[in-house]
Design goal:
Number of domains: 1
CATH superfamily: NADH Oxidase
Largest sheet: 4 strands, antiparallel
Strand order of the largest sheet: 3-4-8-7
Number of helices: 7
CATH class: Alpha Beta
Helix content: 25-40%
Shape: globular
Order of helices and strands: EEHHEHEEEHEHEHH
Length: about 220
């Protein structure tokens, strides 16, 4: 089994893959930010190959340097990669996320409202700041040749119990991290089909407005 076929677009057929569009991104090669944005995908085909400590440190540093409201840095990240914590946290995954089984690292991202700006009109910034940090880490992971896939399908109560996370924290996401692989046996047929192409984006004018709400930017 080929553990990390660099960052290529793959078409998955059954339990195998075939290349459909080579992308210039090789493990260890510097990738421009624009290129990392373009090729980033929430892929699901993972190897169980352990991550080098320097790459884990690089992901942590990417989050540490992220912007946040008044530099509050509200995120609290539990790195599950040990012989006990990693298998345990995988029991909190939903059935639809069994594809994450091979992952050598799962980051459990938590935060709480009072640790970040709380302003008028329900503007609690802890979720926004934490999302910025995770997004920045995703781009660094892409540069390092890693899959970095945040998910929402897990049991947050069980995660808190397993990891000793205080009750007043919200478990915002699990981030599944590992090298890409070619073994898609953990994926459902629907998930295999989803790996074939990047999910379509909405037209710009649906999300971006010029000068007033509802007036399409383009």
């Amino acid at each position: 089994m080929q553990d990390h076929p660099s960052l290529t677009t793959r078409a998955i057929v059954g339990g195998k893959t075939k290349s459909t569009d080579c992308i210039r991104a090789i493990i260890g090669e510097r990738v421009e930010v624009a290129e990392a944005i373009r090729i980033r995908r929430a892929r699901r085909v993972l190897s169980d190959r352990p991550l080098e400590s320097e790459k884990v440190d690089a992901l942590v540093e990417a989050m540490r340097l992220s912007a946040s409201c008044f530099n509050n840095q509200p995120w609290r990240v539990t790195l599950c990669m040990g012989a006990e914590a990693l298998p345990a946290i995988k029991t909190a995954l939903s059935k639809g996320n069994v594809w994450a089984t091979p992952a050598p690292l799962i980051m459990v991202i938590s935060a709480r409202p009072p640790d970040d700006c709380q302003l008028s009109e329900k503007r609690d910034y802890f979720l926004f700041s934490t999302g910025l940090a995770v997004g920045q880490m995703e781009l660094r992971a892409t540069e390092l040749g890693l899959v970095c896939h945040p998910i929402a399908g897990y049991d947050p109560v069980k995660a808190k119990q397993l990891l000793g996370i205080p009750e007043d924290y919200i478990v915002i996401t699990f981030v599944i991290i590992g090298y890409p692989s070619t073994d898609s046996s953990f994926l459902s047929d629907k998930q295999k089909a989803q790996e074939l192409v990047r999910p379509e984006r909405k037209p710009i004018g649906e999300n971006f407005f010029l000068d007033k709400w509802g007036s399409p930017y383009k």
